[in-house]
């Protein structure tokens, strides 16, 4: 696998009430898919440590849909937990598929996460400060399907992840639904899932989405609509088809202040 790249993003959120409570730097780990960089992911761990983040967010797909090799993910999290910043982890489609295929193994995995002190959010909130709340949205499984008739409604999201006052940072694995996240009033959204479009073309961006649609709108990087900002990671791993062209794996660092 080609080496990953640490990408830095900066965004001004001084317009938000209580913005002074935002973490200064967030490390975003997305779509690792049990891949490793060096023994026990030592290169990835060193890169995160060097950036001195105040918060680590894992936006899903740390594993590959069942228990095969998921020990790699747990070893990574065990070492990551030694770096001290809070770790918050939400589900991607592979964690959800893991739960569906082997509920007992999945519950054992979740138990290990909790023992490591990882905040594992399944349609739940974590209060980072009095006014800054981290939400882990488990995107309904049907929304990952390839059919054109699949829809996600604002009312459904508000039922899954009820509103909170203050600043809302939401981990939502699939960026395709950004307009719905925006309409729910989420301030900051962290996503991945598309692996940067697999193949990236100059000026055109990512070539294909997981729904097999060409040139997805929200492929990678930062997007702002109204008062919502979404950061989409190109991800750190691959699975099944081990392919990336002009598209290095990405460790995302976001400076919020």
Question: Would you give an account of this structure?
Answer:
It is a single chain. The protein has 257 residues and is an alpha/beta fold. Helices cover 22% and strands 24% of the residues. The protein is built from 6 helices and 14 strands. Strands 1-14-2-3-4-5 form a 6-stranded mixed β-sheet, with helices on one face. Helix 2 links the parallel strand 3 and strand 4. Helix 3 packs across helix 4. The longest helix has 13 residues.
Short description:
This protein is an alpha/beta fold and 257 residues long. Helix content is 22%, strand content 24%. It has a six-stranded mixed beta sheet, covered by helices on one side. Strands 6-7-8-9-13-12 form a six-stranded mixed beta sheet. A two-stranded antiparallel ribbon has the order 10-11.
Percent range of helical residues: 10-25%
Beta content comes to 15-25%
* SSE order: EEHEHEHHEEEHEHEEEEEE
Q: How do the strands of the widest beta sheet line up side by side?
A: 1-14-2-3-4-5
Global mean pLDDT: 92
N/C terminus separation: 34 Å
Radius of gyration: 17 Å
Secondary structure tally, helices: 6
Low-confidence stretches: none
Helix/strand-derived category reads: alpha/beta
Q: Describe the biggest sheet?
A: 6 strands, mixed
| Net shape | globular
The counted number of beta strands is 14
